[in-house]
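pasting for ref
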Amino acid sequence: MTGMPMKNDKQSLTPLMSRFVSEYLVDLNATQAAIRAGYSVKTAQQQGSRLLLNVVVAAEIAKKNQSRLDKVEYDAAELLRELLEENNANLKQIYNADGSIKPIHEWPDVFCTGFVTQIDTELIYTGTGKERRLVGEVQSVKFNFERLKRQQLIGRHTNVQAFKEKVILETTNPLQQLAEQISGRSIRPIED
């Protein structure tokens, strides 16, 4: 939301505005929220922007978002702890010395909370019919690398701010420098 909210003569939300607020909190996309709320697809972008600037709508979004934040209790420390835990997870922790996969109940929690999404087991046989016998198995583990995207989404919906870059640029204004030099307030080298 950019700029200052506009004044609204009405002090309460219409049903359509209320629906917009609920839909906006789904993905923080004003255009899509306007469409889902029932506004025209053709004017959804303008309607979404207008609604975000509406004082009553903005206040309701802030109120409902704060209510969600209070329920979630997810903060930057928790997110960063999870990211570090996943970053430092060692695959050796889920394998036995012989290369077989340990039973899941022996895995560290980091692997059991969505980091591993699937385990495939392929049995290898030799022979056919009555001569067929199991000679080995191959297990493959699939990891959920989409988890980071989920965490970024969580970060957008909470006060985490872990994925916002803070850039501070120190700039100088050439006109201001010239004015300071003319008025004698600039730093000048000492003349001999």
